[in-house]
Amino acid sequence: MDEILTMRGIGKRFPGVVALDGVDFTLRAGEVHALLGENGAGKSTLIKLLTGVYDIDAGEIRLDGVPVRFTGPGQAQAAGISTVYQEVNLCPNLSVAENIMIGREPRRFGKISWSKVRQHAGALVARLDLSVDVTAPLSSYSIAVQQMIAIARAVDVSAKVLILDEPTSSLDASEVQQLFALMRRLRDDGVAIVFVSHFLDQVYEIADRITVLRNGGLVGEWAVADLPQLALVEKMIGKELSALERLEEQGRPSVAALERGAPLVAADGVGRAGSITPFDLTIHKGEVVGLAGLLGSGRTEVARLLFGADRADSGTIQIDGKPVAMRGPGTAMTHGMAFCSENRRTEGLVEELTVRENIILALQARRGWSRPLSRRRQDELVSKYIKALDIRPADPDRPVRNLSGGNQQKVLLARWLITEPRLLIIDEPTRGIDVGAKTEIQKLVAELSDGGMAVLFISAELEEVLRLSHKIAVLRERRLVEVLENDDAVDQDRIMATIAGGNP
Amino acid sequence: MKAVVRHRLFWPAVMLVVLLIGNTFYSPSFLKVTLRDGHFYGSLVDILRSATPLALVALGMTVVIATAGIDLSVGSVMAISGATACLWISELGDQNAVGGVLVAVALALLLSLVLGVWNGFLVAAIGIQPIIATLILMVAGRGIAQLITGGQIITVNSSPYKVIGAGYALAIPVSVIIVAVFVAVAAVLVRRSALGLLVESVGGNPTASRLAGIKSARYIWIAYVFAGLCAGIAGLIFSSNVSSADGNNAGNLIELDAILAVVIGGTALTGGRFSIAGSILGAVVIKTLDITIYTVGVPTSSTLLFKAIVVIALCLAQSPAFRAKFARRRSAAEATA
């Protein structure tokens, strides 16, 4: 295969940190190349160097054998390197055709020729087998389709190298398959695709080759067939899988050991029109309740109603046996609830504030503005949780924006843990974070429930739900269809069957 | 050294120094402060004194902008505040009665607070976009002020009232003392309580703040009320200084200078992190610039242009993106040379 892009001895330092050192990366035409590593390993930096967001400090980039140097994203794009990020960077209010052609509209006498815009965009989506009406507004399509439109635009602009940064993290299984079909088609057309993902199963499904980074250095490059998944994880975290295995051995929590008294929280016919059908759910002290279901099946909606983030329009919520009028998150917090949203950035952290400020935010909100936490108390709490959760770097005064995804997730957890909640609701806490941090968070959930905290645990990964939960509530199409005791009779297939709508 | 250069107030401070030095070329005694009749005199004192209303308005604006809002009505609130006080005093039998003047001041401030509550109501309770919500009072407020003054300029002859804007205490202008104390108290209140953090959080990420249990509406409301109060005091200082109330012109276009002061001070219009010290410095820079225009003798017809150019230069110097570009060009030029 032709080497279309080679990076040799790449180095990049930021004030006080060496982000990359001596990294090689080779990309061949017509391959899907997975770029893997834990958070903070240097993947994003490497991509930003490749796309001209940053300039390299050391090393050489060759494109088609010619040394290149990018000092801006425009140059990289002109040279044939396009990127599609996790969040779709398009304009939802414009039509699909406008989005595809924006910035390079065909003109006639200085006026945009709309018929040509539609023609060109239409031909493009047809060529890529996307069934999309190019005159419809982008927002009328699902995120998955929007992402594919973004990809279509990217390959249309410049079709040599396509970088996909976590493209599947907000897609459900069938959407992932659609995306992969598109990726395979592009690969067969000779496009070189860089695929960054935390989903290792997906990597094994789609990738031809894997490059692993760790701590800013290169670990190595392998053909997928030569690197079993377990070995890959070891390369990524650079240690034996002892921690992971221990959790595996520990097995699922014993339902029998859990003494269920009166429920801590009991939802009775709680629902919201257009969001989720009324459901019943009880959560006991020390119990982990897992919510399983496909993306968009109503998992998050259940959590939001319980926490008062959305107003329920039917049913009652009882806490300690007494009905509570949920007026908002404040009410839920006074009753000892905590909610870590799945969207760390948009609904969780205030990115420009420091780690310290983010951690104390919920506690301070509960105390109100006139009763500030003393600086000493802040230091005490913050350093305790930075240590307990191993937040890195352990600098409370660093803006939380500069932390990696896993560490941001821990900051969010710390924010709620210092409020000493009785019920902790965590929505997809392990999405998009590396294996090491994932294990730590799973362990933490198990410990918290052993300590008597009730946990409502939402995850798309069934394995994780099965491993941690005492009880599993399965959702399908915005309806809570079944609540299962997590005993030996329950396994992934059983839950899958319920999710899929087979006979429960 | 690097930390100093990277400090967000470095460039405004440099600009202030440059302006002051520039002035001394045109007027060698510019930096001289003399003690005459027990009062400090000099251009520096003039700058501080003339910056007092703007500094106050900028203080209120800072907190509002930190919530990701904006308050366009501050100029009108200034006019209403001054008009109310002057109307009350002009109706007094004895305009020099301290008690009467105090009542006038209290009335004016109370009204300013009410106007702030109104703005806060529109933004926080009804949910109107801040720029539209405060535009209502910006326009209507001028009308209210004119209604109060009856379309005339109310002139008062009250020595106690005059003290606020034109008096001296301990050789220092009273207005400067009022503003210094008010700013200091406000800064301590904001930073020692959790108000600053909660406001920054609400402005930085409203959704996340709500889910963290912060009652955003409350803090947004507080910000507008505070901005109203600041504008009210500024209005009193302004009208006291000229012993009159002009519903039409008092505080005209001050909202733009105030927004500029906040931006120069390093607070982003998108909300979040704010710097009170920065905004005060920004206000002083703007007033120094105004005075420079007179010292240098820029023709009246081109004063606004001159001001615009200086402001653009300052904003560019402050922008990390522009500095990076400039530095890159320069290093490239050195490499080829």
Notes on the protein architecture:
The complex is a heterodimer of chains A (504) and B (337). With 504 residues, chain A is α/β, with parallel strands linked by helices. Chain A has helices at residues 43-50, 73-78, 96-101, 114-127, 143-157, 173-188, 200-206, 229-237, 242-250, 299-307, 329-334, 344-348, 355-367, 375-388, 405-417, 435-450, 462-468, 492-500; strands at 3-14, 17-28, 32-36, 58-63, 66-68, 81-84, 107-108, 111-112, 161-165, 192-196, 209-214, 217-223, 265-272, 276-283, 288-292, 314-319, 322-324, 337-340, 423-427, 454-458, 471-476, 479-485. Chain B is mainly alpha-helical. Chain B has one domain (38-320): ABC transporter involved in vitamin B12 uptake, BtuC, CATH 1.10.3470. Chain B has 15 helices and 6 strands. Chain B has helices at residues 2-6, 10-26, 43-66, 74-90, 98-126, 130-149, 159-166, 174-192, 195-204, 206-211, 216-242, 254-264, 276-296, 303-318, 320-336, and strands spanning 34-36, 39-41, 153-155, 168-169, 172-173, 244-246. In chain B, a hairpin with a 2-residue loop joins β4 (168-169) and β5 (172-173). Classes of the chains: A alpha/beta (504), B mainly alpha (337). The interface between A and B is medium-sized, with 33 and 23 residues.
